[in-house]
Design goal:
single chain; 76 residues; mainly alpha; 4 helices; 87% helix
């Protein structure tokens, strides 16, 4: 558990080196993360898509809230 927490939270090179020495099974994971981070265009595309989904969901929520307020005003 501690090794996974270290993997997910530490960006210090010395800590990473120690982790890899103790748990070599993390090497492919670090390689994947490194490769992913080197492709900034791909990373930005992921964030862009997530923001688009978030914007859509926020808009739908706002519409639902506005419709709910209209219904409450009609009842009173």
């Amino acid at each position: 558990m501690d090794a996974w927490l270290t993997f997910l939270s530490v960006d210090d090179v010395e800590w990473i080196a120690r982790l890899i020495q103790q748990y070599p099974e993390f090497i492919p994971l670090y390689k994947d993360v490194y490769t992913l981070c080197m492709n900034t265009e791909n990373i930005m595309g992921i964030f862009s898509e997530e923001l688009k989904i978030l914007d859509k969901n926020t808009t739908l929520l706002m519409i639902d809230e506005m419709q709910g307020k209209k219904l409450m005003h009609k009842k009173t």
